[in-house]
């Protein structure tokens, strides 16, 4: 989801990234705002005839400032999360706003409440300052400035209240989930919040279709998908919570030397029925990992000539044996790989595959059935 993103700056050490979808939505917002500039001006008690800039230039300025305030909204979440000991990977601006990516989103309900409320609080305070302090003091400077300040203040106040709707996984939905989680299990709280979030998505979708509001339809879609993904992720977290990497890893690991030919590797895969192997050098040190997909990098005629060192991946993703199985699963998912090397004090003590991880999920289902 976030792979097609470009880092443009850092604020307080947190990378700010632009997703490719942002490059689509920014000119769209600029066009929509510019097309309605006269109506916005009348709402702001500004005579449209007195505006100096082209409506679409004004629309672009307003759109950029709007998304800049979204960054500050997300930064508020991030700084509160950091104050609670949770590291922030980045803030990504995308199709319908911004997303702060946390290293670990599994936090106590009280911490989640504070973190979720920080964004809307910033938007509300910022909007009030713009509308009721800055604009009255400086609105007489010129009509264009007055209009921009009015729009930015109004839209931030709107975003503050809209984000507080209990439409999980929005800020309001997360606050609701954290309040429910203080009285029941985190998974059950997520299930309830997800159901409420999907109900809001359905309502937004119907209203959007009836009134031709494409943005509301898109919001409904992202709320529904986001709520579903959050619940699935929490189901997995619950299923894996009783396991560590050591519980499921394979200890007897078959390795291959980096100097063997690709053809020899393919024959080994057929014989051992494994599709990936850690690669070692002549000293027995791990130098990479090779999979069946890597063998497709070269033509058939070269498979007897080339060593696997020429096709293997040198970017080794590792885990510790005492690491939680869920954290290992997240590493696999984010890196889009099927196996992790299990290292302890610099030595490989096992390998964890995607099949090993899903075995834990099946064991959890068996455990639940035995308790019914």
Question: What descriptive keywords fit this protein?
Answer:
12 helices, alpha/beta, three-stranded mixed beta sheet, CBS-domain, 15% strand, 372 residues, four-stranded mixed beta sheet, 3 domains
Number of domains: 3
Which blocks of ≥5 consecutive residues have pLDDT under 50?
A: none
Estimate percent helicity: 55-70%
Order of helices and strands: EEHHHEEHHHHHHEHEEEHEEH
The proportion of strand residues reads 5-15%
Tally of DSSP β-strands: 10
- Coarse structural class: alpha/beta
Globular, elongated, flat, extended or rod-shaped: what is the shape?
elongated
Mean pLDDT: 87
Count of alpha and pi helical runs: 12
Largest sheet: spatial strand order: 1-2-3-4
Distance between the termini: 38 Å
Main beta sheet: strand number and arrangement? Answer: 4 strands, mixed
Rounded radius of gyration (Å): 26 Å
Task: Describe it.
The protein is an alpha/beta fold. It has three domains: 5-164, no CATH class; 183-240; 245-370, CBS-domain, CATH 3.10.580. It has twelve helices and ten strands. Helix 1 (22-35) packs across helix 3 (55-83) and helix 4 runs antiparallel to helix 5 (143-163). The chain starts with a strand and ends with a helix. The model has no long low-confidence stretch (mean pLDDT 87).
